[in-house]
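Its record is retained below.
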Amino acid sequence: MRKQIAAANWKMNLTLGQAEKLLDEVLAIDWTPKAHQEVVFAVPAPYLYPALTKLRATGRTQVHISSQNAYSEKSGAYTGETSAEMLQSIGVTHVILGHSERREYFGETDHVLAKKLDIALAHGLTPIFCCGEPLTVREAGTQNAFVAKQIEHSLFHLDDAQLRKVVIAYEPIWAIGTGKTATSAQAQEMHAFLRSVLAKKYGATADHISILYGGSVKAANAAEIFACPDVDGGLVGGASLIAKEFEAIIRALK
C-alpha cells in the first residue's frame, strides 16, 4: 500500500513556547502507526532543531520533521535562505516545495521548483511537491490542463527512482478561504487525474506515489476525504495547529 501521510504545515504561526506545547501534545498521543502510515510536521525554520530534538527523545520512527521551503542553490551569497544541505545536516527529512503561497507571494516558477526538487533529492530530502489551481482556472474548467503543466514542467525530468521519493500534494486553491467547498468527489477526481498524468510518463510507478489532499482538511471531513482511493492523506494547515483536530486527522488515515 502507498504511504498514507498526515502532514502538518504550521506556516508562519506560533511562538516557540506555543510550538513546543503543540508538538508535545501531538507526540503524546497514544497511537501506533501501521507500517505504511507517517506523520510529518512542517514547522517554521527557527523551530526545526528544537522539534527534531523533541522527536528524537520519543523514539518515534514514523514521525518526521519537514522544512517549509529550501533554496535552489547548494550554498553561496543568498542572505536569508536555507539550503537543502543545511536541512540535511541537522536531520530534517522532508521539505515542502511549490506551496501555493510560495508561488503566489514569492513568484516561484515551475522552472525554479524543478531546480529545488533536484537539490532536495540530491541531499536525501523527501520533497512534498504542491500543485493546484486558483478559482479563475477552476471556474474556466481548465484545471486539469493547469495542474498537468505544473507536474510536467517540474517533475518530468526526474527518472523513476527519483520520482518514487517525491510526495505530491494537491491544493484546490479555489476552495481555501473563498467560501467555496471542495467535495470528496472533486478531490478524488483530481487525484485520479494526477495519477493518470504520472502514469503516461512513468507507467506503473504512478501507483507508488503518495498524493496528499491540501484543501482545508479538518477533523470533520478527513475520514471521508482519505477514504477516496487516490487520496493518500493530507497536507493540513489551520487544523494542524489544534492538537485534538490533528489527532483526529491522523487517526483518519487509511
Q: What stands out?
A: The chain has one domain: 4-251. Residues 195 and 207 are 7 Å apart (CA to CA). The chain has a mean pLDDT of 96. Strands lie at 4-9, 37-42, 63-67, 94-97, 126-131, 167-170, 211-213, 233-236.
